[in-house]
Design goal:
This protein is 65% helix and 0% strand. The chain is mostly helical. The chain is globular, with a radius of gyration of 21 Å.
């Protein structure tokens, strides 16, 4: 017969109001750290700076209203990213536009600016961006942030609410998937 033994596990010290960060301060810091990245991301999909800023302002208004609950989530940065992504999609729909696209980003790539054959590069870039739309949301987000926005893994990780290792792994899986879609000679590796 086994006896249920109670383990002696240390309990966490009681958290007082003085120990908690000021929610207003943390929201302000979060806003300052992420607004520019969020706007660049939104602009990739909405194609207009004003629309992007409106969608991101709406995102931060929502986050501010619910900031206490956001802080209670397991990963506030990832939660905020999901809210932002949904707001961008909603904003595009509200403007009665096609679903968010990234095709126009094909015309503003480093590869195009340095291309010997701009028309060939446009065709290549459009195929690539169509393939990107076939990736799952997480892969698409990581690829947009790392390739289109030029962020390194730690920067993208901070914005997306992931670890740097997760960003690097997602890039690898995304590139593998893009190779399947496009063929082995055509991926974003040549775009960097």
């Amino acid at each position: 017969m086994t006896r249920n033994r109670r383990r002696n596990t240390p309990t966490a010290p009681a958290v007082t109001a003085a120990d908690r960060p000021d929610p207003d301060l943390s929201f302000t810091a979060f806003h300052q750290m992420n607004r520019a990245s969020y706007v660049r991301y939104a602009e990739t999909y909405l194609r207009h700076r004003q629309d992007a800023e409106e969608a991101i302002d709406s995102t931060f208004e929502h986050l501010l209203r619910t900031w206490d609950q956001v802080l209670l989530t397991e990963n506030p940065a990832a939660y905020a990213w999901t809210i932002m992504r949904n707001k961008v999609t909603d904003h595009a729909r509200a403007r009665t536009r096609r679903p968010p696209l990234i095709d126009e980003a094909a015309f503003n790539t480093v590869a195009l600016r340095d291309a010997v054959d701009p028309i060939g590069q446009i065709t290549e870039s459009l195929a690539l961006f169509r393939a990107l739309r076939q990736l799952i949301d997480r892969q698409q987000d990581v690829m947009v942030m790392t390739y289109l926005q030029g962020m390194n893994a730690p920067e993208a990780a901070a914005v997306l609410g992931m670890t740097s290792a997760t960003v690097r792994s997602t890039v690898r899986h995304s590139l593998r998937r893009l190779r399947e879609i496009l063929g082995p000679d055509r991926t974003m590796e040549g775009q960097r």
